[in-house]
Write a structure and sequence with these properties.
The chain contains 14 helices and 10 strands. By secondary structure, it is an alpha/beta fold. Helix 3 packs across helix 10 and helix 5 packs across helix 7. The longest helix has 21 residues. It starts with 13 loop residues before the first helix and ends with a helix.
Length: 367
């Protein structure tokens, strides 16, 4: 047999293979998402924001506020019902917790109607880069209801976003609220009729989920958490890194940049969450920088990432960290999906959405 003398080249995808690729032309994209993105004119390359982190703070805040409104509008307009769907009833109530700064933290509590007996509890922390989106909007409410209908009590946390119309709440405000909410749920296990507690969130919510359990370990309060389920985690804060560093550490930031979300936009969210940059490598702000010592002894985790997401590789990196530290962890890669599509685009990818809900409930049952 003749000896091979040429070197093989690793296959490249997305913008690594073609810098001009857009969602509409990326062959990996799920067909349901392709149709939905086209209907909302989101199937091109996501436009960069008109400001960056060097802009005046008031200009950044104005732009982020506009992004908040745009995403809230999208979430309200997205189709969410499945054909011939018959929904069971969910009981809902709102609780209010006092945070460490004397602030009020709304908790939205969902329970399957008519179901008695102790149930597992899911503390849900919503996405939005810790900076935008409401806890009780259409998408997050439907997600919470669907999880409750599997036979769980779901507590959705209305933490302080880094951006609000009233002003900014930089790190650690949102994290402190999530920690306070977890303390309240733990203290009210009997009143809520719950057994084990799972922390779950997507994107910025996954950041807060991972940071909340890291904080609980530091404070010797891990008895509050039985398991962690982090979807498409937004945890590096490195969206303004040089192209060279991105390619070296987290190449999906280049490969999938502009597929529904882009790095320049995310970097403006970082500028509000950590305005001075003093927490750029603080694991409680950006869990990507956690060490093996930080995560050793944590409860079981699931980390899921999506193929067409700029954030894909930071989630994989965190999975590897947990694995090295001996934390029980499962990792999943959802092919064909953009950022958080498996929870926010319910009608476009029903199979992926249902699978995510089933897997979260199944994870709770293993604890």
């Amino acid at each position: 047999m003749a000896e091979m003398t040429h070197e093989s080249t690793a296959r490249q995808e997305g913008r690594l293979a073609d810098p001009d690729v857009e969602l509409r032309t990326d062959p990996r994209l799920h067909p349901g998402l392709r149709a939905t993105f086209a209907a909302f004119q989101l199937d091109g390359h996501a436009a960069p924001p008109p400001v960056d982190r060097t802009s005046p703070p008031e200009a950044i805040a104005e732009m982020v506020g506009a992004s908040h409104a745009a995403f809230e509008g999208l979430y309200a307009a997205l189709p969410s019902d499945w054909p011939d769907e018959v929904r069971a009833d969910v009981d809902y109530r709102r609780e209010t917790v006092t945070g460490v700064d004397g602030n009020e933290i709304p908790l939205h509590v969902f329970r399957p109607a008519g179901v008695e007996g102790p149930l597992p509890c899911l503390v849900y922390i919503h996405g939005g880069g810790m900076t935008i989106l409401e806890a009780h909007n259409v998408v997050h409410r439907r997600w919470s209801e669907d999880l409750a209908l599997t036979g769980m009590v779901v507590v959705t946390v209305g933490f302080r976003n880094a951006w609000t119309e009233q002003g900014t709440n930089p790190f650690p405000a949102g994290l402190d609220d999530c920690s306070s909410a977890l303390d309240w749920v733990h203290a009210h296990r009997a009143d809520l009729g719950i057994t084990r507690i799972v922390l779950q969130g997507e994107s910025g919510g996954a950041n807060l989920v991972l940071a909340t359990v890291l904080k609980a370990k530091r404070e010797e309060r891990l008895d509050r958490v039985d398991g962690v389920y982090a979807m498409v985690p937004y945890i590096s804060g490195g969206y303004g890194w040089s192209r060279e560093r991105k390619l070296r550490e987290l190449p999906s930031m280049v490969e999938n940049d502009g597929h529904y979300i882009n790095c320049q936009m995310m970097d403006t969210l970082v500028a509000l969450y950590d305005p001075t940059g003093e927490h750029a490598e603080n694991p409680l702000a950006w869990p990507y920088f956690a060490t093996e010592d930080d995560v050793t002894g944590l409860p079981p985790h699931v980390i899921t990432v999506n193929e067409l997401d700029p954030l894909r590789d930071e989630g994989i990196a965190y999975f590897r960290l947990l694995q090295r530290a001996g934390v029980p962890v499962v990792g999943r890669v959802n092919l064909g999906l953009t950022h958080a599509a498996d929870m926010s685009f319910r009608a476009a990818v029903p199979e992926a959405y249902k699978a995510a809900v089933r897997d979260i409930r199944g994870f709770a049952d293993t604890l």
